[in-house]
Amino acid sequence: MQGEREAAPFRPYPPGTQPAYDVPGYGSTHKRHPQEPLVQLPHTVTESIGPHFSSAHFPPIPDLSLVDGKPALGERIIVHGRITDEDGRPVSNTIVEIWQANASGRYQHPGDQHDAPIDPNFRGEGRVYTDDQGWYRFTSIKPGAYPWRNHHNAWRPNHIHFSFFGSGFAARLITQMYFPGDPLLALDPIFLSIPDQGARNRLVCALDMTVTEPEWALGYRFDVVLRGREATPMES
Amino acid sequence: MPSATSSQTIGPFWHLIEHPEWADLTRFGAAGSKVTLSGSITDGDGNPVTDAAVELWQSDPPSDESFPGFGRCRTDQRGEFRFTTIKPGPVPGRGNAQQAPHFAIALHARGLLKALMTRAYFEGDPLNETDQLLSAVEDPRRRGTLLARPEGKDRWRLDIRLQRGPHGETETVFLDI
Ligand SMILES: [Fe+2]
What we know:
- The complex is a heterodimer of chains A (about 240) and B (about 180).
- Chain A is mostly beta strands.
- Chain A has 3 helices and 14 strands.
- Chain A has helices at about 5, 45-50, 195-200, and strands at about 40, 65, 70, 75-85, 95-100, 125-130, 135-140, 145-150, 155, 160-165, 175-180, 205, 220, 225.
- In chain A, the strands form 4 sheets. In chain A, strands 4, 7, 12, 13 and 14 form a 5-stranded mixed sheet that branches. Chain A has a 4-stranded antiparallel sheet with strand order 6-5-10-11, with no helix packed on it.
- In chain B, strands 1, 2, 3, 4, 7, 8, 9, 10 and 11 form a 9-stranded mixed sheet that branches. Chain B has a two-stranded antiparallel sheet with strand order 5-6.
- Chains A and B meet through strand 1, helix 2, strand 5, strand 11 and strand 14 of A and strand 5, strand 7, strand 8 and strand 12 of B.
- Bound molecules: fe (ii) ion.
- Fe (ii) ion binds near residues 156, 159 and 161 of chain A.
């Protein structure tokens, strides 16, 4: 059953916190961005609610660092964080999809032609669920940087791709997590496409010694905020 | 409180999370009238977009263990996608209005730093005449980009154009939600 809060529309994104569709420094946007103005759609049930993923149908894949028990090459990491909405409420029992390049910066993907080795023991896909308090956690390998053809000598900073659903389709979010201190960030048109510097920097995870496991793996924390809802009469 | 986390592109290598069966929303045994929705995605030059993730979400019938309500499909080398699902019925709109049956569609691809959102309605449905979104799009050619066309019994097609072409080709209506 949908309660009042679940039926409430989501709030608009604050200006500058989301990238535009047309970003001149990112060549692939040139022929793919809309030129007509977007049509405003006040949220209806279609936007206010969203899919529910059950772990029976969509089983968790919490460890990308092993295939058939054999360890992948590279620097083992544990990534965890908390998913909340813009009001600080935990987003519980929600699916988190993860994918990334291996330690050499190579995706196990037919379209990836980068001349770096494939690691048969690296699983490029993960899937976890948040707990009741919005926490998620998975184990992986620190991904390598890789070249792309956006401009001469272009390299993507180390990153992990994430997909979130939250509690309604209008809160759908696909993003990338970056690593602290990466000098490539200052050169990356995808990272720099977010106008607001504070919002941009929240895509950079933090080293977290509380989840770092001695003799085993470095820990990183990446918190995510999904859209909050407009106040409803019942809440005020 | 911090604002919502920023979006970044799904990139060209999202197929690591692709599961082709997700394009069939009836695979868990959902009851109801099966339909297919196929179509293509083209860019501003009219070239097929061959690396997109097309996502379909419907708020009707309500999702449960036998019906996820959500599917994802890649575009192929011709820019084509195809879903199998259950035909949605009308759902409530704003006020006392009914919305015509529709799918929500989210497009993710290299070159899209955030999702492009649109809808697919069913051409010829009588409720289309009073649907609030369709009524808000005055240009009939643009409104037509939101209407899937019948291709045979229970088969529907929606071609999506990301950008107006050099010869005035009509750009799909994308939604600010
Ligand atoms: Fe990537």
